Description:
Elements: E1 2-4, E2 16-22, H1 27-36, E3 43-50, H2 57-63, E4 67-70, H3 79-91, E5 97-100, H4 109-115, E6 119-123, H5 135-141, E7 146-153, E8 163-170, H6 177-202, E9 204-207, E10 210-213
Parallel strand pairs: 2-3, 2-5, 3-4, 5-6
Antiparallel strand pairs: 1-9, 6-7, 7-8, 9-10
The structure holds 5-O-phosphono-beta-D-ribofuranosylamine (GRF).
5-O-phosphono-beta-D-ribofuranosylamine (GRF) binds next to helix 1, strand 6 and helix 6.
Amino acid sequence: xxxxxxxxxxxxxxxxxxxxxISGTGSIMAAIEQASRxxxxxxxxxxxxxxRADAAGLEIARAAGIATAVVSxxxxxxxxxxDDALARTVASFSPDLVVCAGFMKILGPAxxxxxxxxxxxxxxxxxxAYPGAHGVRDALxxxxxxxxxxxxxxxxxxxxxxxxxxxxxxVWDNDSxxxxxxxxxxxxxxxVVTTVGRMAREGWTVEGRTVTVGQA
Length: 216
Ligand code: GRF
């Protein structure tokens, strides 16, 4: 697969539009929002979409003046209809880049067809180790001494897409899932903010499994 961001130019007058998908507290989305207040960041959040109305991050987005939407699977007769609605809602914000930041649903064909190659996800483990919904718990159970976080380009699999960026976090002997996840998220927020900003400002290419940010 080759993908080139169609608008990779630092000289662009306006910044790249992001749609951020969340399911929970939204602290990664909040970190992006904070960074985007500086115009040189090169990206701004056009909309935040959650798959549940009680996602706490929605309130953070609203307080920051960002448009929000909820597209909840339980409001649709089946997964395909939900996927279509999600894709339409994402499209309504005309994003250059879609950021899954703690979004706990697999994107379906409708979203991938429209935005494939322009969707990133952040995962709290060093992929390809420990994919899936419990990356932190699984790393602990697996006896990992080092884990971390990974930003990938989303494909049709579960955490299988090409890797954009990673950062390592040591596992401590007395770690619980919560303590380890908290330290991963500290690193993850910075990784996502830096990676999304670079992608927005410099563009990226994907050749097979190799993602190159900049030099596009
Ligand atoms: C992150 O660790 C993400 O990788 C995982 O859920 C967490 C999201 O945190 N899937 P928040 O909602 O941004 O605070």
